[in-house]
Structures are given as C-alpha cells and as structure tokens.
Write a structure and sequence with these properties.
Layout: H1 4-22, H2 29-60, H3 63-81
C-alpha cells in the first residue's frame, strides 16, 4: 500500500496536467474541492480496509485464503479442460 502511494501520486499529477492541457476550465475551484474530498475519502477507506485485513490475518492467518485459492483454482482448471472459453473481454 505505502509503495503504491508515490506511483498513484505521479499518475494523478499527470492526469491533472493532461486535463489542464485539454480543457483548463475543468480545473476550477469547485472541481478541485471535489477531487480533494474524493482523494481524502479514498485514502481513509483504504487505511481502514488495510487495518481490518491486518487484524483479520493476525487472528485467523492465511488458512481461509489458501482454501479459497485451491477451490477457485480447481474450478478454473476444470472449466479450462472442459473446453470453456477462458478469454477475458
């Protein structure tokens, strides 16, 4: 999560720069407030989700995740060998 922050920041700055080049009127004060509130809410939700998952893993470990991966893998392999089209659109 923390390693993704600089990358996401760089992508956001580039997107804002591209929007500014195409249509500077979109970056008015009201839209900037909306962008900032959206980023703040996304950050808070991400921190809460990470806290929840760390607490869950501390108590329960990866056992349930391991079972899930084995079951989903078996289902996907049987679908593949049964001839289902596994192409994602």
């Amino acid at each position: 999560f923390f390693l993704a922050v600089p990358t996401m920041l760089a992508v956001t700055v580039k997107k804002i720069y591209d929007i500014y080049k195409e249509n500077p009127a979109l970056l008015n004060g009201e839209n900037i407030k909306t962008y900032l509130v959206g980023n703040l809410v996304a950050f808070v939700v991400a921190v809460l989700a990470i806290k929840f998952f760390i607490n869950y893993l501390t108590k329960h470990g990866f056992k349930l995740f391991g079972y899930y991966r084995i079951i989903v893998g078996a289902i996907l392999l049987s679908m593949y060998f049964a001839g289902y089209n596994m192409v994602m659109a």
